[in-house]
Amino acid sequence: MDTVIFIHGAWTTAHCWRYFAPLFAERGYRIVAPSWPLKDRLAGDQLANPDPRLAKVGIPEIVDHYEAIIRRQSQPPVLIGHSFGGLIVQRLLDRGLGAAGIAISSVPPRGVSPLGLSPSRAVKKLWSLFGTPCSWRGIVSPPDRDAEEEALRRIQGIETQLVPESRRIFWQLLTRAAEIDFRNETRAPLLLVGCGRDRCVPAETQRRIYDRYAASPARTDFALFPYLTHMAIAEPGHEALAAYCLAWTRGRLAAHAAGQPVGAK
């Protein structure tokens, strides 16, 4: 049985996959959806009593955490990540781990512009996450949603369970901890998914990530879902996204079983 490992993003837990992952299970995949280090408690508990050790968790610790899980599997799994989890997937693939990877609305690796917001708004948003250099090891509360995003959430009936986050991971987006070897010839196939109504990590950012991978012969695909937002894995319409990811996964695993080279298109 093929295994799929789901990797969530910042400010949340593995519970965010509660609508998406079961669709893979129904198709016969074994599902593994672990939380990031120190984020396996109930959301309410994390909000009320953040673990002070969370402040020391960074991108390397998260990647190492999932590498250990991957290496315990009987065969290379498919890796699926959302938002910050999409960056983690890319880092893992770059290490030679996984049979294939899917990054949905991925936070961009170092060197890829996250443009999509106006420059002034982008600076304000980044500053609110980073804080001052002396606070880079702090813990940051879940961000407030603007009025439009909150209205959209209520209309769609999307449940959210946001939790505190390590500020360190956001500072590390500017460092080598978030770097990818875009020319890596031996990494497993990667699917990048952009969502047309994503206001957090716009679809154009996913295209910029895709363009950076053009230097590698390893397979990289791009898919756009125009009517989905950053909450694509849990909002109405996630079924179409899951179906696409299922078909892509099935195709890549079949190619791998047939001995098709990594770089084959």
How would you concisely characterize the structure shown here?
The protein is of the alpha/beta class and 265 residues long. Helix content is 35%, strand content 13%. The chain has helices at 21-26, 43-48, 59-71, 84-94, 119-130, 147-156, 168-171, 203-212, 238-257; strands at 3-7, 30-32, 78-82, 100-104, 139-140, 165-166, 190-195, 220-225.
Protein architecture, described:
This protein is an alpha/beta fold and 265 residues long. The chain has one domain: Rossmann fold (3-Layer(aba) Sandwich), CATH 3.40.50.1820. Helices cover 35% and strands 13% of the residues. It has helices at 21-26, 43-48, 59-71, 84-94, 119-130, 147-156, 168-171, 203-212, 238-257; strands at 3-7, 30-32, 78-82, 100-104, 139-140, 165-166, 190-195, 220-225. Strands 2-1-3-4-7-8 form a six-stranded parallel β-sheet, sandwiched between helices. Strand 7, helix 8 (203-212) and strand 8 (220-225) form a beta-alpha-beta unit. Helix 3 (59-71) crosses helix 4. The two termini are 25 Å apart. The model is unreliable at 117-124 and 154-159 (pLDDT under 50).
